[in-house]
Design a protein that fits this description.
Blueprint (H helix, E strand, L loop, with lengths): L9 H45 L2 E2 L4 H16 L14 E4 L2 E4 L4 H17 L15 H28 L4 H13 L3 H4 L6 H16 L8 H17 L4 H12 L5 H30 L13 H4 L18 H5 L6 H4 L6 H10 L3 H20 L18 H11 L3 H23 L11 H12 L13 E2 H8 L9 H24 L3
Antiparallel strand pairs: 1-4, 2-3
Helix pairs in contact: 1-4, 1-20, 2-3, 3-4, 4-5, 4-7, 4-16, 5-16, 5-17, 5-20, 7-8, 7-9, 8-9, 8-10, 9-15, 14-16, 15-16, 17-20
Length: about 525
């Protein structure tokens, strides 16, 4: 039947239909703007909550911490790469041509030095004293750590939640998974310490996010440059991240089948990585006389000199799979004891395969597999004085990404809450006592953490004070309010209660419709 001509009777109906369509468009636009605004507010709230909580404790130094901080102070106080005069603060050092240097990759210290300059301007931090025997606290330590490890950890939480929301994980579960990666894992400890794990992880998470959230066929030149730059910084902080950085680059290249686009992407990622490579080569040349030399070649401590060498700077050997069980299970160094929610990464990867979410699958899988392989291949596999498996800390954000995607399943949603609570409690307890528990203590929780909490009695192998210091408690004491409680256990409970209220509130907001 041919269409009939429009009559006057049809006009009101047509106008009503057009008005209805316009109304729906306005509603959709309003909802979209509301979602974006609410997501932005949630991201800011997550960032501030994680960052502020990372500054709750003032942690004492250990060799690993002091090695990086001494390079910061050498750079900030006298513009030197040598830590001569500061060498008594750490045993993690290199010795070359009569001078002492940090034995660590320089990335953490280079990135943290601007924060030290700012702190000196704002608070008048004095230059670090020279020639002193090792001591546990210095005023600038907490500031530098908060603006490096703490800031990086907050960025990890925000980026993870953003990725999960972008790949269609319900917002409240995306937020819970992102927070679990920090507060319910050993990352809570390393957010308060001048180790490279948090900073390196933040760089790699950003690089991975630029690949996974790309909505186009192929990756733009600008995005490719950021991927290379961010991954390069991650390797500059921790050299063991290099294999993972290469995998991220390969996954990025797999996003396109166009030869010109592939070439452009590869060139831009390489250009992005050049600043970090130049920083490493220049540091090595100035400190050790060759761009290809590094601190690991010149260890001044016999224990580490026996592991690291010029022929094998990272000290890696063939993987020892007998260490797989203690690295994954058990109170000593078991990942699933300190972060049991990480087991939910397995169903998450299954869902990624089902949904053909290839970039997220390969990057998150490699993000866990590479640190695990490195840990199995390293003779000092225990991580020394640590909470949980220290050398697997960089795997935690990627396990959280997979576990978060698993929250599309009701089974994973049911399991993630109790596993989150367990990890949160365990790591909060460890954090309150300083987070560095000797590798000579077979049952860290039962033989160290719990006795300290119940009796204030540290074990035989303990670095110093039984509890970490609390920033607010120290500040109140300096303000003359010394009658206010200094019991760290109470302060730990205050922090835990605040975190609990935040988690419940942010999940409730995440579930609400804009």
């Amino acid at each position: 039947m041919p269409d009939r001509p429009t009559t006057e009777k049809d006009k009101p109906e047509r106008h009503a239909s057009h008005a209805s369509a316009q109304s729906r468009q306005v509603d959709v636009a309003g909802i979209s703007n509301g979602v974006r605004g609410q997501s932005r507010s949630i991201a800011i709230a997550i960032f501030l909550a994680v960052w502020l909580s990372s500054g709750w404790y003032l942690q004492a130094r250990d060799w690993n911490v002091a090695s990086r901080l001494m390079l910061v102070y050498a750079l900030g106080d006298r513009g030197s790469l040598s830590i001569d005069g500061l060498d008594k603060q750490t045993g993690d050092l290199a010795f070359k041509d009569g001078h002492y240097y940090s034995d660590k990759a320089p990335g953490y210290s280079l990135l943290a030095t601007p924060a030290y300059f700012v702190g000196k301007k704002l608070f008048g931090f004095a230059d670090h004293p020279l020639g002193k025997d090792g001591f546990p606290h210095w005023p600038a330590d907490a500031w530098v750590t908060w603006f490096s490890s703490g800031l990086a950890t907050a960025c990890i939480a925000v980026i993870l939640s953003n990725i999960l929301i972008r790949i269609d994980v319900p917002r409240s579960w995306a937020v819970l998974a992102a927070i679990a990666a920090i507060w319910a894992s050993p990352l809570a400890v390393y957010a308060t310490l001048a180790y490279g794990h948090a900073v390196s992880s933040a760089c790699m998470v950003l690089a991975g996010a630029m690949v996974m959230t790309n909505q186009e066929q192929g990756i733009s030149k600008q995005r490719a440059f950021v991927i290379g730059f961010s991954a390069g910084l991650g390797v500059l902080v921790e050299l063991a991240q290099a294999p993972f950085a290469i995998i991220i680059g390969i996954v990025a290249l797999s996003r396109s089948t166009n030869l010109k686009n592939l070439t452009d992407m590869a060139v831009m990622m390489i250009l992005g990585a050049i600043p970090a490579a130049l920083a490493l080569f220049v540091y090595n040349y100035v400190a050790f006389g060759s761009p290809l030399d590094m601190g690991y070649f010149y260890h001044a401590t016999k224990q580490f000199a026996e592991v690291h060498s010029a022929e094998n700077p990272l000290g890696l050997k063939n993987p020892d799979f007998s260490k797989l069980k203690p690295l994954l299970w058990g109170e000593y160094r078991g990942l699933l004891f300190y972060a049991p929610w990480a087991a939910l990464a397995v169903p998450g990867w299954g869902l990624m395969l089902r949904d053909r979410l290839w970039p997220a699958f390969w990057i998150s899988l490699a993000g866990v597999a590479v640190p695990l392989w490195v840990n199995l291949s390293y003779p000092e596999w225990t991580g020394g004085w640590s909470t949980g498996p220290r050398l697997l800390v960089t795997a935690l954000p990627w396990a959280a990404l997979a576990a978060g995607y698993g929250c599309r399943s009701k089974f994973v949603r049911f399991a993630i809450v109790p596993t989150f609570v367990w990890g949160w409690v365990i790591n909060s307890l460890c954090l309150s006592v300083g987070g560095r528990i000797s590798q000579d203590i077979a049952r860290p929780l039962r033989d160290a953490v719990v006795p300290i909490w119940l009796e204030g009695r540290p074990p035989m192998f303990w670095p110093g004070e039984p509890f970490a210091r609390v920033f607010l408690s120290e500040w109140l004491s300096e303000a003359g309010l010394s009658n206010f409680t200094t019991d760290v256990r109470l302060w730990a409970c205050i922090l835990a209660g605040t975190q609990l209220i935040f988690v419940l509130s942010i999940i409730r907001i995440g579930r609400a419709r804009p």
